[in-house]
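Subject line: Sequence and fold of a protein, written as structure tokens
Body of memo: The sequence and its backbone structure tokens, given next.
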Amino acid sequence: MKFSHTNQIFIAVGVVFFTAILCFFSTHFMGYRAIAFVLLMVTSLIAMFFDVVPVLVAATLSALIWNFWFIPPRFTFHITYSEDLLLFLLYFFIALVNGLLNVKIRQAEAKARDKEEKELTIGLYNTLLNSLSHELRTPIATILGTVDTLKDEDKMLSLEQKAELFHGIETASLRLNQQVENLLNMSRLESGNLKLSLDWVDMTEWGHQLINKFSLDAQHRKIALKVVNDLPLFLLDVGIMDQIAGNLLRNALQYTANSVPIFLRIAMENEQLEIKISDEGPGFPEDLIPLVFDKFYRLPHTIPGGTGLGLSIVKGYVEASGGTIRLRNLNPGCEFIIRIPARTSYVNYLKNE
């Protein structure tokens, strides 16, 4: 929490006075020289959090209080002994220098952090732009090339050839739409403007509809659905759920071999909706699992394609829904486990609401 400049001065003065009062009642046990170290430590602590002026005020005030309240003769600014005068001047100098050095060190650290964050941000955006330059250019080039072919009246195309070209346009358009959708979704999550549109969802029906949506992408690959019996209705944002499961299924289809089956399991565990999406592919390197949900992160040596936003969007949507997501390796393959707390209702109860 960042205090205003005036508030910092008031807090610094208050802390010094409070410490001095505590020390005042401990003078007989500590001695006035030991109290100097206590006040110096308090000044150093203030310098770790506040700006230059409050630190200078705290250092000056602590020196004056130490002189007036503790150095004999007490309750006067007169210092009898030369060694006490030297000690007071040394204290004043050390308090000022120590406070200023702490502030400068803090400012240097903040500047270094800002520079590091700026370099990281530039690196992330360069990664994003490099990925987008490929991910957007490829489908656009496919669409434009196919359209030119269809417009060329000199080419006599059969119905099968035209159907194949139209299929290519559809595939490229879906790929292009997915990349734009990922960018928009990430923007929604980072802006904090994501608002859930809740409705009662039959998860069995939702699971079948989801697999049907991926029938074209799956290309005859097996996506096995298992739904635990007697599931209640869940109050969820069905669009968000489509994004979560859709990105995970899309990843599994893209990064595993055509012979590898994919499994979608829906259940209720500890009063929470539990969705497991698994495959029997190569899995993830154990040491890289903590990184897979980071924005723009892609595993080394993966096949070209993607901007590294899919899993970070999944994590963002799961957390926006109040849930958790976990990734673990199987033998073989891997499994994403999603748990989302949600209101539930069986049909009989729902009709009475």
